[in-house]
Amino acid sequence: MKSSQIIKATSYSLAIIFVGLLIWWLQTDPTSDFEVSLDGADNRGSGAEAQDVKIGEYFKQFADDYTEMSETWPRFRGADFDNISKSPVKLIDRFGAEGPKIVWSKELGEGHSGAAIYKGLVYVLDYDEEERADMLRCYSLLTGKEMWVRGYTLNVKRNHGMSRTIPAITEDYILSMGPMCHVMCLDRETGDLRWGLDVAKEYQSEVPLWYTGQCPLIDDGKAIIATGGNALLVAIDCETGEKIWETPNPEGWKMSHSSVMPFTFGGQKMYVYSAIGALVGVAADGANAGEILWQTTVWNHSVVAPSPVCMPDGKIFMTAGYGAGSMMAQLSESNGNFSIEVLSKYPPRDGLACEQQTPLYWDGHLLGIMPKDGGPNRNQLICVNPDNPQEMVWTSGTETRFGLGPYFIADGKLFILSDNGTLTIARPDVKKYIQLDQAKVIEDGHDAWAPFALANGYLVMRDSKTMVCIDLNVK
Amino acid sequence: MEKESKSKNRREFIQSGVRLSLAMALGSVSGLALSKVVKDDYVWQIDPFECTQCGRCATDCVMSPSAVKCVHAYDLCGYCDLCGGYLKPDSNALSTAAENQLCPTAAIERKFIEEPYFEYIINEDLCIGCAKCVKGCTAFGNGSLHLQIIHSICDNCNDCSIARVCPSNAIKRVPASEAYFIKGDFTKKSES
After folding, report:
1. Which of A37, A45, A210 sits opposite B106 (nearest CB)?
2. How much is the pTM?
3. Where are its TM segments located (chain B) (predicted)?
4. Helix residue ranges per DSSP H, A366-446
5. Percent of chain B having pLDDT more than 70?
6. According to the model, what pLDDT value does residue A2 have?
């Protein structure tokens, strides 16, 4: 064979091999052994079975004498829904050498339910882990003596605590909402059962993750409950338990941990609610009571715990945790018609955001504690101007970080509770953070997240297991 | 008779000497082996309370994939449906669909236990030590997911490349007898 023929044969062979390899390379799928992650691989169950609950079935009276007092903290965020006490009672700004004066302390079921106070009585919806029951407990504010308890048997499993809500109290009624959406209305003085409502059963609602966080509202003798499911909001006559109106929910928006906030704007009283699906305003009174006045689905997150912050100029601030961030919106009214415009929406590291607590609106500014995913400002108390919630007016600084605990203003002082039960007193200011004092109130405190309640200078606060009352009065 | 006795003593002496030598040799070998076992060598490990989940363990380790893996302290886990370590922040749904998973390699298996609990299991072979899950769990959960250097994979380089770049100096030499800092057993050191 001639050398030219050998070269030719070799070239053809190499060309054939090359083409073969090319075809193999083009046809081979390097991801053929990859598994596709599809929905349902976790074999999720069909949901917890509904329980037959006899709301209010259990009652026990322990005492009937207590010292009646003058002041109240009748619901979540206080009388004016702003978490600012208007009491003239003078409060300490330093704990002194002896430290916080603890008046009484109570062990409760694991949870984050805060107290309401009404004229010398403290009300808290506890989950009794031994009895396996939701228990509305009534204590004397001054002594901590338990007056009575009313509740109902309910199996609730630990899921970052059980109880989460604060009852609403008026002169006549007590309204509570339990972890599995059981609403109970009682006579305030006697604790007698008025009526009960199993919201999840009645409205086919989905119990929120980690159980109900919505604090019920009593407004003008009506119980206002955001149900989700077959209705969005409902109004119920506290006296009779009769439904007054229901807001249709064609979009199927779900119940969140957020609470309903009353707001009057453009001559219209409304209820502002952040459902899972949308932020809405529902007419509170008049011929159109119960109708949706405005809505925005721009605000749609799977977990929303803070409540809407409604400002006098119609701005509404919403924030939430788990990566949701915040939104500032502007409500407008024209000839009785309402519209909402989103001014800004941003992730948590780009401006004021909060995971559990609702920010304070004070002196034209918003104050809140940043979540852990809040970037360099994580866990710091920050102050912003509502005109630009993404620009910090001040922060508490890298050396002063807090957690998911509550904060409120009373007697011109800002009280902040850290997760571990440390109470900080600061002076609210729109220019800088001014810390006055700090002391450990709950030894070995853990997850102290429940909102504060204050009346007559007595502050009721708790961690996941222990509720304490401390005397803040200036002696 | 006397000669025989002397001869026997010599034999016994040699036998005893051999036995002693053997015993000493065996003892030396055993001692050496024991010292190898109990010798307090040092290995690299991550302090989970110092770790800031920067992601460099995945990119800077000389091993590929990294010798750093996520480990799960089950006794600290909340077994939540909405798990910040498993799901992307603000995910579309609480499901196992790829678009909702935070882990870039699907190294976390999610299993329904009973209402309302879900279990999360790390597949070490798939984990690249990127710390995305640790960041989510630390920010929104109990912090039960955390990074550890796995010593069966680690080359124990003298000049550990991830220790060099760790922004929070969370990677330290620790005695080989205490080679892992598993949360729950290992608690944050007092700041005082």
Report:
1. A37
2. 0.88
3. none
4. none
5. 86
6. 79
Place of tokens 């509502």: A386
Tell me which chain A residues have a C-beta less than 8 angstroms from the C-beta of B81: 209
Is there a domain that residue A309 lies in?
Answer: yes
**CB atoms A45 and B115 under 8 Å:** yes
Contact assessment for residue A279 and residue A235, using Cβ atoms and an 8 Å cutoff: no
Chain A residues whose CB is inside 8 A of the B88 CB are 323
Residues near B62 by beta carbon (within 8 Å), at least 6 away in sequence: B155, B157, B161
Per DSSP, the residues of A342-371 read EEEEE-GGGS---SSSPPEEETTEEEEE--
How far apart are the two ends of chain A, measured CA to CA in Å? Answer: 118
Distance, C-alpha A291 to centroid of its chain: 24
How many angstroms separate the Cα of A291 from the Cα of each of A16, A23, A101, B5?
Answer: 76, 66, 49, 121
Q: Is A20 helix (H, G, I), strand (E, B) or coil?
A: helix
In 3D, which of A269, A308, A266 has the Cα closest to residue A289?
Answer: A269
Parts of chain A with a pLDDT under 50: none
Give tens-digit pLDDT for B97-133: 999 999 999 999 999 999 999 999 999 999 999 999 9
Q: What gap in Å lies between CA A320 and CA A307, rounded to an integer?
A: 9
Averaged pLDDT score across all residues of chain B: 89
Question: What does the pLDDT average to over B77-94?
Answer: 94
Residue A6 covered by a domain: no
pLDDT at B192: 36
Instruction: For residues A343 and A340, give the distance between their C-alpha atoms in angstroms, rounded to a whole number.
Output: 9
Q: Which amino acid is at A90?
A: K
* A425, part of any domain: yes
Residue B151 gets which letter from DSSP? T
Structure token digits, residue A272: 């502002």
Let me know if residue A412 belongs to a domain: yes
Question: Looking at residue A226, what is its pLDDT?
Answer: 98
Three-state SS string over A297-325 comes to CCCCCCCCCCCCEECCCCEEEEEECCCCE
Please tell me the predicted confidence (pLDDT) of residue B3: 57
Q: What is the mean predicted confidence (pLDDT) over B34-55?
A: 83
Question: How many domains does chain A fold into?
Answer: 1
Interface test with chain B among A42, A157, A209, A349, by most B beta carbons within 10 Å: A42
Mean pLDDT over the full length of chain A: 96
Sheet order of strands, A182-187 included: A168-169, A173-177, A182-187, A193-198
Residues from chain A contacting residue B90 (CB–CB below 8 Å): 301-302, 322-324
Residue of A nearest to B110 (CA): A42
Q: What is the pLDDT of residue B29?
A: 72
Boundaries of domain holding A273: 52-471
**Closest residue by Cα to residue A284 from A223, A342, A216:** A223
Q: Which two tokens stand for residue A27?
A: 């046809």
The pLDDT of residue B28 is above 80: no
Chain A nearest C-alpha distance from B164 (Å): 23
Q: Which residue is it, tokens 């249709």?
A: A248
Q: Are A436 and A425 in contact (CB under 8 A)?
A: yes
CATH assignment of the domain containing A208: 2.130.10.10
Amino acid B190: pLDDT = 47
CB B113 within 8 A of CB B133: no
Query: Residue B171 forms beta bridges with which residues?
Result: B46
Q: Are the CB atoms for A42 and B111 separated by under 8 Å?
A: yes
Amino acid in the structure at residue B161 = S
Tokens of A69: 């007092």
